[in-house]
Amino acid sequence: xxxxxxxxxxxxxxxxxxxxxxxxxxxxxxxxxxxxxxxxxxxxxxxxxxxxxxxxxxxxxxxxxxxxxxxxxxxxxxxxxxxxxxxxxxxxxxxxxxxxxxxxxxxxxxxxxxxxxxxxxxxxxxxxxxxxxxxxxxxxxxxxxxxxxxxxxxxxxxxxxxxxxxxxxxxxxxxxxxxxxxxxxxxxxxxxxxxxxxxxxxxxxxxxxxxxxxxxxxxxxxxxxxxxxxxxxxxxxxxxxxxxxxxxxxxxxxxxxxxxxxxxxxxxxxxxxxxxxxxxxxxxxxxxxxxxxxxxx
Length: 297
Prior knowledge:
Elements: E1 5-12, H1 19-35, E2 40-42, H2 70-82, E3 85-95, E4 98-106, E5 112-117, E6 123-124, E7 127-128, E8 142-144, E9 149-152, H3 161-169, E10 174-178, E11 182-183, H4 188-210, E12 213-217, E13 220-223, E14 232-235, E15 239-241, E16 247-250, E17 257-264, H5 265-274
Parallel strand pairs: 1-2, 2-3, 9-10, 10-12
Antiparallel strand pairs: 1-17, 3-4, 4-5, 6-7, 8-9, 11-14, 12-15, 13-14, 15-16
Helix pairs in contact: 1-2, 3-4
């Protein structure tokens, strides 16, 4: 049995409305993480701007960039220079009227290991993503990198066990979830703890159910791109969980920081031998999973 260990890092950041500023900042933080020994670094969802989905405004489509545009070129060069793998979540302009919430997986030699397009698209108050994003059409994938085989899903995907399962079944040792999630400020006192605990619990559950590492990279800060709105208070709390759901590293609610942890594929093997969930799956009995709803309707 081949055993592999490698170090991953999440860059928890506060972002603003100026793409050039965010690009420079994120590159600096990737460099910091690499200097601290990270071999894979993940940035938050839609790294290059504020979270513009708080309103439906057609001008925000101007924030999108074509495939292999500035984000790819800049981070490709950085990955090659630092010899690190970088997960770069960005706003993709596929064509006029077709946009995606996407992520590059850039290998340590500067080449593309893969592209992921967010599959599950929410539409909730101040999270009006269906206005902006076409659902992903590349499916759930695992990508080979110079250090390991990883999967990348994005934010709302983190609530769905199916995406985590399918990605794990393709051999991913680690799931990254670039994220932009927080509280509506007027709901925080009443619902804040429950919402935050649910967010962590469901992702730790993916780690347990699949015997896999899970890393969620969130942003921080109160963002109010709309005048006279309460905005969203992003809750940070980026974390890395091991294959038994154990928390290996966790960030604060409100500080920019890098968190790091070691991925040990030997531990994945050990956990799965003792909790053989993949062995005991009843694939002959799961047909109803492909229906919208069960029962008689």
